Amino acid sequence: MKDFIRKLRNQFFEYGIDGYIVPKNDEFFTEYSKINRLKIISNFTGSAGLAIILKKENFLFTDGRYTIQSEIESGKNFKIIDFKNLIDCNLFKNLKLGLDPKLFTYRQIKKYFLRYNKVKFIKKNLIDEIQKQRLDKSAPFYSLDKSIVGESTISKLNKISNYLKKNKSDYIFISAPENVAWILNIRGKDVPNSPIPNSRLIVSKTKKIFLISEISKCKRLLKDKTINSHQFINTKEFPEKILNFKNKNFIIDENSCSIFYENLIKSRFKIIKRKDPTYHLKSIKNNIEIDNMKKAHILDGVALTKFIYWIQNVNKKKISEVDAQIKLEKFRKKNKDYLYPSFDTISGSGKNGAIIHYRANKKNCRFIKKRRYLFM
């Protein structure tokens, strides 16, 4: 870790900065970044955090879930600070902080850094310059049938189009992958524990769509005609192609449109609104969605009931936290529609149950004894 920090600081002079900001999220603003830059620089493995490395001191911001964990993993080299102190951060002043504009929104930097300090956008990610990583190819996206989602893509595009017309906008840039998934009724395997298709989407007021992703991920969608070749834009080609769009007004989402993409759109178009209506539209569940949610809870409730019965009636052998975690997964897998857990199982016995995001492993897990609660 110290070696990485030293190599990062060695780049400060070249870029004219006093420090560098490293978030946990990736360019899609998910906590499950395939390149965990925060871990590389700080050794912190929690799901939420942000590091600031200055010339002579380092700060790690995280929340109450990780108070114990962050001290253990990063306390020797970082001052651990509660996230609330990141708002209008005044722990240091009059500094120029470097950051990757693909990993932050304007709303974030205004909220956190611009009151007492300045920021500089650096095209190269300085953590990636220290440690190059090869990424495995992700599995292709796939479509969901209307019988599962309850509403067609055409119906959803009609709603988006009506919103654009009402707000006198020509296009909307959908930057949150989960919103792309809802609109197009597609899913992917880009992050663990959730079928997110890492992609972006442009929808016009005339209901034209442009899915922005990698061709390897979209081959199945092209084959089953969920989209056609004219509705696909390769991520690398997007900056050039968007500049050829006609008309002028865009809507973006201030919570998920990065500084990089906002600057790209502003260079050619006028941004008239900063709210993606998809969040509201998808929050209103149709009857099929409601029925499927009820079904999922019943099926999982059966698995959990079987697990509770099992753990209360196995007396002849020791059960570890890991054993319990594996057994619960086996009960869930008996459901033919089961895919995977929605988050890594928290199986903590005794004092481990006090660690909010505890992860059991075979090397240090506890055995479950009578009169000792198991938190899952």
Structure description:
The protein is an alpha/beta fold and 376 residues long. It folds into 3 domains: 2-130, Creatine Amidinohydrolase, Chain A, domain 1, CATH 3.40.350.10; 142-283, 3-Layer(aba) Sandwich (Creatine Amidinohydrolase, Chain A, domain 1); 309-375, no CATH class. The chain contains 15 helices and 18 strands. A 6-stranded mixed β-sheet has the order 4-3-2-1-5-6. Strands 12-11-10-8-13-14 form a 6-stranded mixed β-sheet. Helix 14 packs across helix 15.
Short account of what is shown:
With 376 residues, the protein is of the alpha/beta class. The chain is built from 15 helices and 18 strands. It has 3 domains: 2-130, Creatinase/prolidase N-terminal domain (Creatine Amidinohydrolase, Chain A, domain 1), CATH 3.40.350; 142-283, 3-Layer(aba) Sandwich (Creatine Amidinohydrolase, Chain A, domain 1), CATH 3.40.350.10; 309-375, no CATH class.
